[in-house]
Specification:
With about 325 residues, the protein is α/β, with parallel strands linked by helices. It has seven helices and six strands. Strands 3-2-1-4-5-6 form a six-stranded parallel beta sheet, with helices on both faces. Strand 1, helix 1 and strand 2 form a beta-alpha-beta unit.
């Protein structure tokens, strides 16, 4: 497709964080791409926006019309941007489209279309920009994935598959290009109020119970867009992940406390007042009531270091 500059580039801030760097942002005319373009411009970078409708992009960026689903269009746009800016240092792959439905909700043609725009376009843009990145001393690539690639979201099978592919591609490309000094990373944003996601929240992600009709603003917990009194669906998922993380930390702490090398250290500290456990400081009341001598705590596994001198049993409380 033809490339038509929508707005000429302006002189960036001379002392910004990205002063002197030249960036390409696909899908940079709206949503997250537009916010990224504005942030780069505000920090001194020269930015080129590649978009199907570049006329709505932020002021100060070089706007070029580009279809990321077409290889010829991508190559022509990247070369035009490199010629006008004098090279390319940063590539931000942000262009993408959404998809809804479970595994039966999209046919093969829709799968091919969304994969082409969300996944294959990332390879097209990087492949076209790679010769310029190799000549840069500050080369970096940032791919926009999604939280959907890390958290299972209902009615998002196709979209989640594409963003998971972007995340995996990022790891593989980072391993391939790290030896050339080119950094490749990905970001996983959550739900943002953008034109591309405007229609994704107009219907519930979880279907309503049988016999009920969904209506905007419904407070029925479990199937309304906001999840009723339980809060948003993503908040519940985040709480579940946090709970699992805390449980893992607790397991590690218990394992660390039972380690032979730390058992003697744990016995050297007295028990907290009122504590009933006998694992780290003294006998339990139940053990004393049974008439058994508490004795020192036994170590599991082979001894570590020199043998310890015998200790007197701790008195019963």
């Amino acid at each position: 497709m033809s490339q038509t500059p929508a707005t000429p580039p302006t002189t960036p801030e001379p002392h910004g964080e990205f002063s002197g760097l030249r960036a390409l942002v696909t899908g940079g005319a709206s949503g997250i791409g537009a916010a990224t373009t504005t942030a780069l411009l505000g920090r001194g970078a020269q930015v080129t926006v590649l978009d199907l409708h570049p006329e709505g992009g932020p002021e100060g960026a070089l706007a070029l019309r580009c279809d990321v689903a077409d290889t010829a269009s991508v190559e022509a746009a990247v070369e035009e941007a490199a010629a006008q800016l004098g090279g390319v240092d940063i590539v931000i792959n942000n262009a993408g489209i959404g998809a809804q439905g479970d595994v039966t909700g999209n046919d093969d043609a829709e799968w091919a279309r969304v994969l082409d725009v969300n996944v294959t376009s990332v390879a097209r843009v990087i492949r076209a920009a790679l010769p310029h990145l190799r000549r840069s001393a500050h080369a970096a690539v940032v791919n926009t994935a999604s939280i959907a690639s890390a958290v299972g979201l209902p009615q998002r099978v196709l979209y989640s598959a594409t963003k998971g592919a972007v995340q995996s591609m990022t790891l593989a490309m980072a391993a391939d290009l790290v030896g050339e000094g080119i950094r490749v990373n990905a970001v996983l944003p959550g739900t943002a109020d953008t034109p591309g996601s405007a229609g994704c929240w107009r219907r519930p992600m979880i279907p309503p119970p049988s016999g009920r009709r969904w209506r905007p603003g419904s407070r029925t917990a479990g199937w309304s867009p906001r999840g009723g009194r339980r809060g948003p669906l993503l908040s519940r998922l985040a709480a579940q992940r946090l709970h699992r993380g805390r449980a893992a930390v607790d397991r590690r702490r218990r394992h660390r406390g039972a380690h032979p090398a730390l058992s003697s250290l744990s016995r050297s500290f007295p028990a907290a007042p009122g504590r009933r456990s006998s694992r780290r400081g003294g006998p339990s009341p139940a053990r004393c009531r049974a008439g058994r001598s508490p004795g020192p705590m036994r170590r599991a596994g082979p001894p570590v270091g020199p043998p310890e001198p015998p200790r007197r049993p701790a008195p019963c409380p």
